[in-house]
Amino acid sequence: MWNTSVRIEYIAGLIADSFENYSVNDVSNQFDKAISELKKYFVHCSDEEIADIISLCMKMYSSKKIEHADLVLTSPDSFRVKALKTKDIVHKLITSTEKSLTLTGYSVSDYFTDMLDIIIEKSQHGVYVRLYVNDIERQRDVLNRLMAYRSRFLQVYEYQKQEEDKMAALHAKLIVSDIKRLLLSSANLSYHGMQGNVEMGFLIESHDKAKQIEDVMKEMVRMKVFCRRNKD
């Protein structure tokens, strides 16, 4: 039955989806539908009051403080320590993503090919994927298939070499899933990163920290630190 509770839940869902789409893609037109529904529900509210409701909801949404961190480790099989395994967490983050996925890769090897196939499939089902890489040509053999599937939902950005410092590079290793879970690690997307080396990092549950990373990456694109690779 379409009752008050159901309608409020529906409007709340519209507003939450609008915020997430704005956070991921800087697209605000989804707010139009939420505003339209609010006007139907709060028929005596002015446009300014509706805007205040949206603003209040945005502040409440952005202030969510669900934060938790766990150690994530790559180590020899003989090493026993209570920690999450890098390989398992990378797989879980990618496969569980429902709306948006951001990854950076200094080194991406053919060991990661299966995960790239999952990333392509995710993008084909409407998940927004942004991959930031250091040197596409050096990793062309691994990235060729993914590059062929670039679209509105699957975008690849390359670090722009600095003339004044040719040793400078994208060295950050991170994965952000649905702007609420993120892995910060020393591990590359490679065999040794996943199970050969000793690598450490943290799996963090935090909307605020995840959004901060997303905002930083977008700003670096705006400043042309990274440039989007279009169809070759």
List the helices and strands and how they pair.
Blueprint: H1 4-25, H2 31-41, H3 47-62, E1 68-74, E2 84-85, H4 86-96, E3 100-105, H5 113-124, E4 128-133, H6 140-148, E5 154-159, E6 174-177, E7 181-185, H7 191-196, E8 199-205, H8 207-222, E9 226-228
Explain what you see.
By secondary structure, this protein is an alpha/beta fold. The chain has two domains: 4-62, no CATH class; 68-228, Endonuclease Chain A (Endonuclease, Chain A, 2-Layer Sandwich). 44% of the residues lie in helices and 20% in strands. It has eight helices and nine strands. It has helices at 4-25, 31-41, 47-62, 86-96, 113-124, 140-148, 191-196, 207-222, and strands at 68-74, 84-85, 100-105, 128-133, 154-159, 174-177, 181-185, 199-205, 226-228. It has a nine-stranded mixed sheet, sandwiched between helices. β6 and β7 form a beta hairpin. α1 (4-25) runs antiparallel to α2 (31-41) and α5 (113-124) runs parallel beside α6. The longest helix is centred in the N-terminal third of the chain and has 22 residues, at 4-25. The termini are far apart.
